[in-house]
Amino acid sequence: MAWWDETREKDLPDYAELICIHSLQSQWRKGYGRKMMETVLHDIKKAGYSKVMLWVFEENIRARQFYESLGFTANGKTKKDFEATELCYEKTL
Predict the structure, then answer these.
(1) How much is the CA Rg of the chain, to the nearest whole Å?
(2) Which H or E element spans position 17?
(3) Nearest CA to 35 among 45, 21, 48, 47?
(4) CATH class for domain 2-92?
(5) What is the pTM of this model?
(6) 93 band by pLDDT with thresholds 50, 70 and 90
(7) What is the pLDDT of residues 38-72, one digit of tens each?
(8) What is the C-alpha to C-alpha distance for residues 22 and 28, in angstroms, rounded to an integer?
């Protein structure tokens, strides 16, 4: 499952935000996540956004590599949440 909305970040007003993407661990490495992301990014672009951002836990290397493989880059913004650091990634569509 995945969902997105306009960003909640006041300093990125023209961005869409990928709020969540999840798949069962048994389905990892089968291409479903990539297909889901391609669909979500298509929908975001179709809605009129040219940029998308997301937050990812710094320690979640697998997710960060996945987003980077799709063209996302860390923009340098960070935040502390639940005793963990989150990194902001973004992509121009």
Answers:
(1) 13
(2) strand 16-21
(3) 21
(4) alpha beta
(5) 0.89
(6) very high
(7) 999 999 999 999 999 999 999 999 999 999 999 99
(8) 10
| HEC string for 55-87 | EEECCCHHHHHHHHHCCCEEEEEEEEECCEEEE
Spatial neighbors of 1 by CB under 8 A, at least 6 apart, are 20, 21, 22, 23
Contacts of 32 (CB under 8 A, 6+ apart): 23
How far is the C-alpha of 71 from the C-alpha of 92, rounded, in Å? Answer: 8
Both tokens assigned to 54: 């997301």
pLDDT value of residue 89: 98
Give the other-Cβ count within 10 Å of 67's Cβ: 22
Structure tokens at 33: 């996540």
